[in-house]
From TrEMBL, chain A:
Sequence similarity: Belongs to the binding-protein-dependent transport system permease family.
Protein known as: ABC transporter permease
Gene3D superfamilies xref list: MetI-like
Residue ranges annotated for the ABC transmembrane type-1 domain, each copy included: 144-333
Keywords annotated in UniProt: Cell inner membrane, Cell membrane, Membrane, Transmembrane, Transmembrane helix, Transport
Principal subcellular localization: membrane
């Protein structure tokens, strides 16, 4: 941390200091980072395959590579089904296996439940199962990951496009700006939801399709602030001085004005992230989101609505979403305050 | 400035005896306002910086006290803390009392202060454009102050407002009631500010640099008005200024402030004749002096313009055809020989900076610009880029003209990166050389702009321009944002550079004293037009045009 701090210029050093002196923002960031990093390794936390198998003196990692059943002395050439009693017996004869803490993946249909699905929380299924007999904890872990990854990619994508468009509009002004602004107004008026429904009829929505479509409408979020920053920036004396030095436009934009615009951008990013999480969740809830069967928080919300007799579904979805959004907003507030030069803590 | 709350070494306080003599009314009476050991400090995070350190003074009825000092000396902070207008709780007072009508104002809550502000104590700010609300009429703004404190309706306040406008000598007061601030000139706006400050017949008026933002000819009128009002109403006036000329004409007592401390307190006449403190003497000497660099008279022409015009469209028809145009520069024909300095003078809005930007091709213009025999007004921007290293610019505000995110070395070498392909060592060498030349230490090169003083920043801006070895340097009010003592140093530096490098300057300023110290030729501009041009000697001593004569009288007199 200290070496990073020293490489930054004093303004950013102060901001970093301000952010980390705000306990709420600091802890929110740490908790978020821990949860996110953990969720990146979801396969090792919740899976219906063992993490490691010691069989006949050899070590196998079924999560990373697929082994046929014959490897463990079975009959079929297909991949071993580790939830099958027979396969487990085969492994236990000549070795042993380490299982992840939750022995179900997001798409594992659990057979032989005591209650009909959705079944209430038990010692095996900590938060119960959904109406297709899948473990809720496993689905939450995977759903959390996909929400964050989707939101991150969407936010980074819209930042890149938005900053670029805003920068060009603001810096050159005049006709470019005029045309750009009118386009943005029309674009902003398009009914996104209807377009999504139409799209869903033409292509099967996948993670990347959904991302592309959302990016098409989300990039406008940053254009206005960045444009305003560049409009102001191009008349600053040091920008004029750079022009008089003969510095090319692209360098002036990148080196002299962009850092100013980044303040507005960075401040907005955590809120954009929260917005993207909400967007994906609501699309999934409506059924226009991720392909059927994929783990998602929105789908869990929909299940909660469909199965009011099983409150653990709705409660889980609510708690996870609320916690995630709260963390992001707290981080966002911390960032915003750190970038505010007038604010004094205490 | 980042002094921790250190104990003040005893400052020799000049005796206050006889300080209140000039006003016959004062003397024995208790003072209107008495400030004792006032300190102001700011905290940012865990850092505490003290900006005013135990300052004490008294103001009597009918007396003018001037707080003099350079920027950052804490004079405005002192004034603002009397009215508790500082950003509390970021700012706080480690010590001090402000006694007014036998009450300590520092103990007052913000709501109690509202009874005092604008009622018992009025305040005039530096910038009349930003201190007035652009969305309200004059009547409403002055009326608001009256209605707020006297509990009457705007309609009933109208005669009072008219009376006030007459007092501050606004002609046709009746017709001005419905005007908005932007419809008035700078001087008139400042008169409105004064009217607002006087609206409730306060006992004390605080004027924070009341004339700094105004043109020289207007400054004089406003000061005369303030003096007259102060005499008529027997006000206690606290005048804050950096300009000793203003002090000379206005004040009875003077406090000289340096870095938050009062270094000298004395009668106005004594300050000018027998300054006790070394810093006061330095302030008094702070006037650019000397003559422009001697050069041989027959040098070739470097730059000339023919019929140069700059206009902005202020109103367009539906189809984008310009309907109304504002001509910022009209048919400017100028000519400057190599190695000389061309001074451009004029009041704000006269188009001098616009002319400079047009010559630099940073603004669209019509007409011809000839530089070193090539017609640069016709060259396309992409081809012009390579030629830009030959004509460079230094801007007015050294705080705005340096990117806050780059180190001094990065700023200075930016031009080199564009125009030459030097290795890193060669570049560092060149940066070091030019920093030495402008009087900066090379060891400072990794600092950021905010770690430099105003004068040093202006040196960085000059170094950035010089590193490309330009033959023409356009200086757009390079000394206006600097303190007087620093101005002198910058003018000396510019003169030395011209002598050694044979630079040609176009020097833009509203300050005739600075122009006089540097220029060989002078152009006087008014409303976008060149009123008079000629040799410096002739324009300064025997101006032909009435406007030039008026300008000379107001600023050199």
């Amino acid at each position: 941390m200290n070496s990073l701090k020293q490489r930054l210029n004093p303004i950013n050093q102060r901001r970093l200091g301000m952010f980390f002196s705000n306990p709420r923002a600091k802890w929110s960031l740490w908790i978020f980072l821990v949860l996110f990093t953990a969720s990146l390794f979801s396969e090792f936390i919740a899976n219906n395959k063992p993490v490691l198998v010691f069989y006949d003196g050899g070590i196998y990692s079924p999560i990373l590579t697929s082994y046929s059943e014959t490897t463990f002395g079975g009959d079929f050439e297909t991949e071993a089904d580790y939830s099958d009693e027979y396969v487990i017996e085969l492994i236990n004869e000549k070795g042993w296996a380490i299982w992840p803490p939750i022995p179900y993946s997001y798409d594992t249909h659990i057979s032989g439940l005591e209650h009909p699905a959705p079944s209430p929380p038990t010692s095996k299924n900590w938060l119960g199962t959904d109406d297709q007999a899948r473990d809720v904890v496993a689905r939450v872990i995977y759903g959390f990951r996909i929400s964050i990854l989707f939101a991150l990619t969407l936010t980074i994508g819209s930042c890149i496009v938005g900053v670029f468009v805003g920068a060009v509009q603001g810096y050159f002004g005049g006709k470019i700006d005029l045309v750009g602004q009118r386009f943005l107004e029309i674009w902003g008026g398009l009914p996104v939801l209807f377009l999504l429904i139409i799209m869903a009829n033409i292509v099967t929505p996948s993670f990347w399709w959904l991302l592309a479509i959302m990016l098409l409408f989300n990039w406008t979020a940053l254009v206005d602030v960045v444009r305003a920053e560049f409009l102001r920036g191009r008349n600053l004396d040091y920008v004029r001085a750079a022009k008089a030095l003969g510095v090319p436009d692209n360098k002036i934009m990148a080196r002299h004005i962009l850092p100013n615009a980044m303040v507005a951008t960075v401040t907005l990013v955590p809120f954009l992230l929260a917005g993207a999480v909400t967007t994906l969740t609501s699309l999934d809830f409506l059924g226009f989101g991720m392909p059927p069967g994929s783990p998602s928080l929105g789908e869990l919300v929909a299940q909660g609505k469909g199965n009011l007799q099983a409150p653990w579904l709705a409660l889980t979805a609510f708690t996870v979403l609320a916690a995630l959004l709260t963390l992001l907003v707290f981080i966002g507030e911390g960032v915003r305050d750190a970038f505010d030069p007038r604010l004094v803590t205490r | 400035m980042n002094s921790k709350l250190m104990t003040t070494p005893a400052i020799p306080q000049p005796s206050l005896s006889g300080a209140s003599e000039p006003s016959a009314l004062a003397g024995t009476k208790t003072p209107l306002l008495s400030v004792k050991d006032l300190s102001v400090a700011f905290r940012q995070g865990d850092e505490i910086s003290e900006v005013v350190d135990k300052i004490s003074f008294e103001i009597h009825r009918g007396e003018t006290l001037a707080l003099v000092g350079e920027s950052g000396s804490g004079k405005s902070m002192t004034a603002l803390s009397i009215l508790k207008l500082l950003p509390y709780p970021m700012a706080f007072h480690p010590s001090g009392e402000v006694w007014f009508e036998s009450e300590n104002l520092l103990r007052f809550s913000q709501s109690q202060m509202q009874r005092i502000r604008g009622n018992r104590i009025g305040m005039i700010f530096q910038e009349p454009m930003t201190a007035l609300n652009p969305l309200h009429t004059i009547e409403k703004q002055i009326g608001e102050v009256i209605c707020q404190h006297r509990g009457i309706k705007l309609r009933q306040a109208r005669p009072l407002i008219l009376n006030l406008l007459a007092k501050v000598q606004i002609p046709n007061a009746e017709s001005r009631l419905k005007s908005y601030p932007h419809e008035l000139s700078g001087g008139q706006r400042q008169r409105i500010m004064i009217a607002m400050a006087l609206a409730n017949e306060p006992d004390i008026l605080i004027a924070d640099e009341p004339t700094t933002a105004l043109d020289v000819t207007v400054q004089k009128e406003i000061l005369q008005l303030l003096k007259k009002l102060q005499r008529d109403e027997e006000l206690g006036l606290l005048l804050i200024t950096h300009d000793l000329n203003v002090v000379k004409h206005m004040a009875q007592k003077v406090i000289v402030m340096q870095r938050g401390r009062a270094v000298e307190t004395a009668d106005c006449s004594l300050i000018f004749t027998k300054p006790a403190h070394e810093y006061t003497r330095k302030l008094l000497l702070g006037k650019p002096q000397g003559r422009p660099v001697e050069i041989s008279s027959d040098t070739p022409e470097l730059l000339s313009t023919k019929q140069l015009c700059v206009s902005f469209t202020t109103q367009k028809s539906v189809f984008g055809r310009p309907l109304k145009q504002f001509h910022a520069v009209k048919n400017a024909n100028i000519c400057i020989e190599s190695g000389k300095t061309l001074g451009i003078v004029g009041e704000s809005g006269s188009g001098k900076s616009t002319l400079a930007l047009a010559i630099l091709r940073l603004l669209k213009s019509t007409g011809e610009i000839n530089f070193k025999g090539s017609l640069i007004s016709e060259i396309r921007e992409s081809n012009l880029r390579a030629m830009r290293k030959d004509f460079q610019v230094v801007f007015q505000d050294p705080f705005a003209s340096l990117s806050p995110r780059m180190t001094a070395a990065e700023i200075i070498q930016e031009g080199l990166n564009v125009h030459s392909k030097l290795s890193a060592e060669e570049r560092a060498q060149r940066v070091g050389d030019v920093m030495n030349e402008v009087g900066l230490e090379v060891s400072m090169q990794n600092r950021y702009p905010h770690e430099f003083s105003g004068g040093q920043r202006q040196r960085i801006a000059i170094a950035r321009a010089l590193i490309l070895n330009p033959s023409l340097l356009i200086l757009d009010e390079p000394t206006s944002a600097l303190d007087k003592t620093v101005q002198v140093q910058v003018v000396d530096l510019l003169r030395n550079l011209q002598r050694h490098r044979h630079l040609t300057y176009i020097f833009i300023s509203h300050d005739l004293q600075v122009v006089k110290a540097l220029s060989h030729k002078i152009i006087v501009m008014k409303d976008g037009e060149i009123v008079e041009q000629g040799d410096a000697e002739q324009v300064l001593t025997r101006p032909r045009e009435p406007y030039t004569q008026e300008l000379m009288a107001a600023s050199l007199g």
